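Q: Mind making up any chain with structure tokens?
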Amino acid sequence: MEAFTTEHIAFRKRRPRGIALILLSMLPVLLLGCPNPVNDGGSSSSGSGEIAVTLNATETTKGSGTNEVQRISSPGASGGSFRLSFDNGTLAPATGDLYVDATVGEVQAALEQLRSVDGASNVFVTGADGGPWDVEFTGALAAAEQREITVDGTALILSLPQVTEITPGGGGRNEVQLISSTNANGGTFTLEFDYNGVQATTFNIGIDATPAYIDIALEALFDIAGDRVEVTGSAGGPWQVEFVGGGLEETDVPLLGVDGSNLTGNPVVSEEISHAPGDNEVQTIEFSPAAGGGEFTLGFGGETTPRIPYDATATGVESALQELSSVPENSVSVTSTAATGAPWEVEFTGRLAATDHELLSGDTSELVPAAAGQ
């Protein structure tokens, strides 16, 4: 009986100590309230469940300026090739042969090979296969005045003006012939008329001639002299020639001949967008509080990078951003004042140069604060 009493008393003495320990452990909760695990900044909480690491992206330098764009108009030749040159002040090399139906990619690749362009990040070609092609100067050539691209089109095969019979002469109708507009863009041509075995040739006619000028050129011929033709149409053609008098009316006459050996067909280069000086955008990425472990991702252009270690090098962050299709090759440059870890400075270069961009975003839910990571 005595043993039972002793054990019973001992048990009763231990019970208050357990209650006291439980109450003491709950004291911080009673005094401070339950911690809120939700991060108001939008980032998920860190691995500790108590402190969330957030990513801060700030615009150190706002992107500004306008890149120059030059348009190479389609040569419109029937065949052959041409070459492009770009003189940056010290070099004026030429590309290899580009055919009249060259694709956008072929023009891009040809320009990239020029030492005066110096790489894929400094030009960006858009447009249509066969032209016209728009060349935007980016990267090291961004937001600056550029010399005009020049074209060597001596190897092009031109489609010469063609003469067709619209209305045969005779039976009470005047003959009408159509001189179709050529796709040459320079030089001159002549017209030939062979009537009753006598051939006559006009003086030189510019490719942009008006109908009135064609009329004068034809009526200067001795066998068409006087008001024997009427020419209608538009400047640069096509031109309609109606034989109206002097014995040529209501008569079937030979087709006019064309000599286009003096026509040229170089593709035309024109400045579509003028440059405006500016700066490349620079954004700084850092964590609050500092991260001591885990991984994070960056978002840009609606895409998300692969996971990046919290202590990544600048090169590692740059490589992750280059994985995004919204970031063209060589279009970001990342640097850091530390060997590893944040902060990182992201400069938008290449095809993203001299432009204002959205702020980078990030998912830091897997990051651990520095205090918890140590």
Notes: Residues 1-48 have pLDDT under 50 and may be disordered. The longest helix spans residues 2-32. Helices lie at 2-32, 104-112, 211-219, 314-322, 370-373.
